[in-house]
Design a protein that fits this description.
Layout: H1 11-43, H2 47-56, E1 60-61, E2 74-78, H3 83-92, E3 98-101, H4 110-118, E4 122-125, H5 138-158, E5 167-168, H6 177-185, E6 189-191
Parallel strand pairs: 1-6, 2-3, 3-4, 5-6
Amino acid sequence: MARISLLRLPNKLRRRVRRNRMATLLALLTLAVLLVIPFYIIYKPPASLIDYFARRWPDVLWQVSTDKKIIGLTIDDAPSQHTSEILRILNENDARATFFLIGSQMNGREEDLDDIIKSGSELGNHAMHDEASRSLPDGQLESEIFEVNRKIKVAYEYQNKPMVANYFRPGSGFFNDKMRRLVDKMGYRMVLGSVYPHDAQISSGG
């Protein structure tokens, strides 16, 4: 006599179970993609997103269109104990960069500022402290930008060279409309970028 397994399901029911399983897997995959995409866009913004930002906020410098195979390098939170080493690497590769300066780190590092200017690199304004500029009151941010600007002028005057440009990069890289109006009123161009290491958001493991 043939034995019928109690665990064996009818074909119709098996197909239904299989469809439910596939639907569950598809839902989980969709959820995973939806969770990953925002982080991907933040940490590796696609060119189309940068193009949109440039159209949305044309007063902010994100990138420069060119047919040449070149990039614009920027170094934040200068001067620091790493400035000399960074300059050495840049000089070895015949490269230049814009160093965005934190005012509270400039005193006592005048030699680093001299070396940056002598190398042909630029000095930019990164406010007085390593903090999110967006969280500062307008009056405080204006005062900080002005003070760092004064220090930058002194550094260029010491080298008998004019300031190349008035660039400001907000701490942590975030801005709002009030900041844009303030920076524009002060005669500065806000500079962000199109490729980020996100060191302001990711703490060092060392």
